[in-house]
């Protein structure tokens, strides 16, 4: 309990003094996770919508694979990305191993199935009449999609929050692909592993508290955005 | 809350979120641009050199002098050499002479240079159930640990420490201790392994540097000084003939830096005021 208390006190100090190292690690974590999430959203949302409305043989199998992506062990994703980006590997020419780009790539692959599956579920949860009505009104596919997404706002925000959660808490893949390099590929989660390894439990707890605070704030904003829709 | 306030708050949240997203995108794009002209090289090294804090102590001088970022990937010696053998590192700093020689023989490493040394120590619970404090050397100590079946924590990660440990077990005539349940093979770095050994009040082979800088409240230094426990660190540049992406000149600059009199003295001074003893001895004989 002593350790926990001193860890929390350490967290207060680090945040209060805006400790530069912690600040840069936190900022960097948000940047890579944010970018990965953005890429996952740009690709995952259209894919999820398409999957909801598509009709073709093998559709169920594709849906199954997309769902499976959500439970795919993230450390294995890290291993696969490492082998792809290694200089020996097929994408070695990119030089992304041990760089932020490698981390973003791994986190994108982790977040994409979550966004896609939950988007599809959100759309399928809507009244099927709605799409027909919009089509009969002459709306374009983009207009239909935007309107449906608005209607499914609550579920969509949950989708993004879930994807964000999976992405920002990832440790294994980020260590394997990023190398936990001080000043360039260290994020909050991997920094916690390092501090624990070094026996610096105070610092580890402090970083954990900061990560919790960030997660909590983002989810609070998400709840706010769901706003009136929740009150219904 | 009145309706207007709620709407305002919603809109503010939305604006705040969009602005934050835009801000983040911009910063990463700009920092990406800023990073490009800066030179960097990847140093694959052991957790013992990194976790002790030595590299953080000596590298900034190099980075400032040459405007080069040294990207340190701290893993076990085995993994460091494996990364280098795939061309994913430019230089290595490791401590497993047999593996290093193999590495050079296979043509993966060049310019193998002795940089510094320290020693391994055998740690264990203060009450010392295997009574190794009495034994004069490491081999004997390990023999006693095996015969009393005392809990022993192993790095188990093909690190320099793990390899030395295997050598001692072999000399002690203990075959495949991994199959015994008093032997815990972790597959983790020195710091983590010390954590576990500390929790379990177990015996463990550690390098002196990490033990001193990390500390282990439940463990004491029971055996030291045996010549078998000598622990030399060597630096190698990955062979540029094998991988065209290797930063040969930067690697050469780092090598020259490490063996310079200034750096060698800095290595020797590391941690002396905090721990009252030398953690890493410089290779240079005249110091």
Residue fraction in strands of chain A: under 5%
Count up the helices of chain A.
11
- Topology pattern of chain A, helix = H, strand = E: HHHHHHHHHHH
- Superfamily at the CATH H level of chain A? MetI-like
How many strand elements of chain B? Answer: 10
Radius of gyration of chain B: 24 Å
Silhouette of chain A: globular
Into how many domains do the coordinates of chain B divide?
A: 2
Number of helices of chain B: 12
- Count of extended strands of chain A: 0
Examine the coordinates and then state which fold CATH places here, giving the name of the CATH topology of chain A: MetI-like fold
Beta strand % of chain B: 15-25%
Question: Can you offer a commentary on this structure?
Answer:
The complex is a heterodimer of chains A (232) and B (287). Chain A is mainly alpha-helical and 232 residues long. Chain A contains 11 helices and no strands. Helix content of chain A is 79%, strand content 0%. In chain A, helix 2 packs across helix 8 and helix 8 runs antiparallel to helix 11. Chain A is globular and about 65 Å long. Chain B has helices at 3-35, 47-51, 54-66, 77-85, 97-105, 138-147, 160-171, 190-200, 208-214, 248-259, 261-269, 272-275; strands at 39-45, 68-74, 91-94, 109-125, 152-154, 183-185, 203-207, 219-223, 230-238, 281-282. Chain B has 2 domains: 39-117 and 232-282, Periplasmic binding protein-like II (D-Maltodextrin-Binding Protein, domain 2); 119-229, 3-Layer(aba) Sandwich (D-Maltodextrin-Binding Protein, domain 2), CATH 3.40.190.10. In chain B, strand 5, helix 7 and strand 6 form a beta-alpha-beta unit.
Nutshell version of this structure?
The complex is a heterodimer of chains A (232) and B (287). Chain A is mainly α.
Topology overview:
The complex is a heterodimer of chains A (232) and B (287).
Chain A: H1 2-16, H2 20-53, H3 59-71, H4 74-85, H5 100-124, H6 128-136, H7 141-151, H8 153-168, H9 172-178, H10 188-198, H11 201-231
Helix pairs in contact in A: 1-11, 2-5, 2-8, 3-5, 4-5, 4-9, 5-8, 5-9, 8-11, 10-11
Chain B: H1 3-35, E1 39-45, H2 47-51, H3 54-66, E2 68-74, H4 77-85, E3 91-94, H5 97-105, E4 109-125, H6 138-147, E5 152-154, H7 160-171, E6 183-185, H8 190-200, E7 203-207, H9 208-214, E8 219-223, E9 230-238, H10 248-259, H11 261-269, H12 272-275, E10 281-282
Parallel strand pairs in B: 1-2, 1-3, 5-6, 5-7
Antiparallel strand pairs in B: 3-9, 4-7, 4-8, 4-9, 4-10
